[in-house]
Amino acid sequence: MGLLLLALTAQAEKLASQNWVVDLNGQTNEAYTANDSKSSFGVFCSGEKCLFYLHQALKCDPGTKYSVLMNSQSISTALSMECTQIGGNLFQILDPFDAVLKATQTGEMIGFAVALQSGAFAVTRFSLVGAKPAIERALLEAAKSKFRDQKPPPENTPKSTLKDISI
Q: How many other β-carbons are positioned within 10 Å of the β-carbon of residue 142?
């Protein structure tokens, strides 16, 4: 029983990186932070594929794309976000990935402004304190998952299926 628990804890690991949490689970890895309004922002990786997301109280239609303004110390830009339902929760998937990654690498805050149907903007801000090492760890684990999935051939596998036959 002790070995089984040890094996399970070796697979799933939750680490704190200042205001960020890194949740490593082998095939799925995530680094995220939350703000006072219970919204969250982070990067989620399944296997070696990763995406940045916002999870906030805004209602959106799954599959619909919206525009969002992103602002940090290093970059201010317009992004696309797609409303996606995962389980019973709505997430906004941010694109392009590289612009969001660059924005998380320096500074202490990042903000997102989403246009509402009323003409107003919903603004959410998140701490970037601890973001860089947290995101790097999640991306590193995602890259490693590519190699974990590749199994070396068994040792007794013949090197070649062609044989020299002499008569």
A: 22
pLDDT at 163 over 60: no
DSSP letter for 121, please: E
Count CB-CB contacts under 10 A for residue 46.
14
Cα dihedral 12/130/20/82 (nearest 10): -100
pLDDT exceeds cutoff 80 at 76: yes
Residue appearing with tokens 């995530």? 30
Kindly state the tokens that stand for 142: 């995602």
Residue 137 C-alpha from the chain's centroid: 11
Residue 164 has pLDDT above 70, yes or no: no
Percent pLDDT > 90 in the chain is 60
145 three-state secondary structure = helix
Residues 6+ apart with CB under 8 A from 126: 33, 34, 35, 39, 41, 109, 110, 111
The answer to whether residues 9 and 25 touch, using CB atoms and an 8 Å cutoff, is no
Cα 31 from Cα 160, distance rounded (Å): 44
